[in-house]
């Protein structure tokens, strides 16, 4: 999986602070076939059958934005053991805040490990596609396994291991040999 999200492979879906109304603006989209192919390449997956995002964009502290919603995708990955296709479903919740004056906002937030994450910095415009791809990436199974696939500890051409004595049993037998 690539850590960099390729910019040119995805249609930007910008969201500007000036476009957001008081109670929030709903935004939803489906990824195109070309974008799903780019997602599969980014994930290192065999294919992405469906991918979508549903967001509610609302104002946050006068000059910031809050993005909530969910992203979904149906992905086919290769089993890490057998390389057989494994179908999977990604469904991730999104809850992020963005503010242009990050330093000022961070100074106002008390550090609490159980509290929500502090707002991220932004310059007045967000790419919702980028947010969706990031969350889909986080929801991807890093080690997909086909049903019934098990990892064998035996290598090719090696005889099955006969139960060995514990090291302590060997030491005990040496002590008794004196």
What does this structure look like?
- The structure is a single chain.
- The chain is α+β, with helices and mostly antiparallel strands.
- The protein has helices at residues 33-43, 102-108, 128-139, 167-176, and strands spanning 14-16, 25-30, 47-60, 64-78, 85-99, 120-121, 125-127.
- The protein has four helices and seven strands, in the order ββαβββαββαα.
- β4 (64-78) and β5 form a beta hairpin.
- It is elongated and about 85 Å long.
- The model has no long low-confidence stretch (mean pLDDT 82).
Specify the number of helices: 4
Count of folded domains:
1
The tally of beta strands, per DSSP, is 7
Distance between the termini: 59 Å
Oligomer: single chain
Across the major sheet, the strand order is 2-3-4-5-6
User: What is the global morphology?
Assistant: elongated
Computed CA radius of gyration, to the nearest angstrom: 25 Å
| Order of SSEs | EEHEEEHEEHH
Label the structural class: alpha+beta
Beta-strand fraction estimate: 25-35%
User: Main beta sheet, described?
Assistant: 5 strands, mixed
Low-confidence stretches: none
Average the pLDDT over all residues and give the rounded result.
82
Could you estimate the helical fraction of the residues in percent?
Answer: 10-25%
